[in-house]
Amino acid sequence: MTEIDTATLQRLDAAHHLHPFNDNAALAKRGTRILTRGEGCYVWDAEGNQLLDAFAGLWCVNIGYGRRELGEAASRQMTQLAYYNSFFQCTTEPTVRLSAKLAELTPHDLNHAFFTNSGSEANDTILRLVRHFWAVQDQPEKNIFIGRHDGYHGSTVAGASLGGMKGMHKQGGLPIPGIVHIDPPYWFGDGGDMDEEAYGRHCAKRLEDKILELGPERVAAFIGEPVMGAIGVYIPPRNYWQEIERICRKYDVLLVADEVITGFGRTGEWFASQTFDFRPDVMTLAKGITSGYIPLGAVMFNDRVADVLSGRGGELAHGYTYSGHPVCAAVALENIRILQEEHIVETCRNNIGPYLGEKWKALAGHPLVGEARFLGMVGALELVPSKPSRTYFPDRGRVGQLCRDFALQNGLILRATNDAMLLSPPLVISRSQVDELAEKTWKALDMTAHALG
Ligand code: PLP
After folding, report:
1. Which of 65, 179, 316, 357 has its CA 20 to 30 A from that of 342?
2. Transmembrane residues, as ranges (predicted)?
3. ipTM of the prediction
């Protein structure tokens, strides 16, 4: 490729590239930041700025940037067999190996993998296959999905419908029929004076109430992120998921855990359903499955669901050209090998996670921070106008953006949702990088407070 300067790239970008989740007109005026290189927990932009990526790209670069082994695994597989599909009674070796590896890693009897290209497609897949599961058992009317307001399950039509983001529903006439939502656990917003256990029961009861309102014979499944990421890292009460599981079992409603963010170590266990000790029937995966090095998603089905789908389901009328792509599978296997052999998840649980948690929670001492949430390797700071009140700034989102921009000025990438600052660093972050992260976050908070006057 010929050299091309940054200003020209920005001009071409503004002219030809529509960015996801951006106000594209505002972005064109501001000029896109162009990232050029990554190593460990750092990325560099075209202006030469070094940035500590406390968000792991988009919650996904679990093993950090720049691991040559993944490139080499992709290159080997591309040279040997760049593509073959899993349609027509065929498949490839890495795809089979990855199915078996995922069956071994995921808890309980989630033993059967269906591959997609993304988390959104994984959630689309469950909408169709779970409805099919009930239909072939002569319960076609058991087809309603219950999700949660403010949940995020992706951007495809079904993914965005299963999610509960109002801004997304407004564009394109969503949700599609047959999907309803309940309120999520968000103690800072609506926990009132309830203690954790009472609040957990209270929030789980919203599911039972909704199932009874609809009639259990009409409810196919409940879907949720074990920790709600995109809306602001809402960490549920400890008993919430066990209560949810109890209710799902009582009414024979399938339980779907969207572990697209939480899978592969983010909460200090391989999967958040282990952290919260519950048994999903279906689990969706993406992101950390390849540490974001190449696109891949998967749905794990338990024995009960898979037995029906393959026993009575007939031909599965569902699949993607790239379902189980051998190059993506080879990269995923190499990523998992690194996570396992370097004991990355265990180090997070026993060492770096507790250290990061201590530093992150200490940020609650800043006058702007109303709550510091943290679990495993993921967290949020809720920025507030006055500390004890659990109230929000007017024009929600403005202060978060301000803080995010100040963090960037200081060489730190944090994400802002509303006025919450979100944390999800590569799992390989070191203690000195945690210190740098905490210091730079405090500085960004100070600069934000100063700008607010
Ligand atoms: N589910 C969750 C919980 C997510 O956070 C995301 C993306 O952030 C998705 C699904 C969608 O995944 P993808 O962007 O790979 O389609």
Report:
1. 357
2. none
3. 0.99
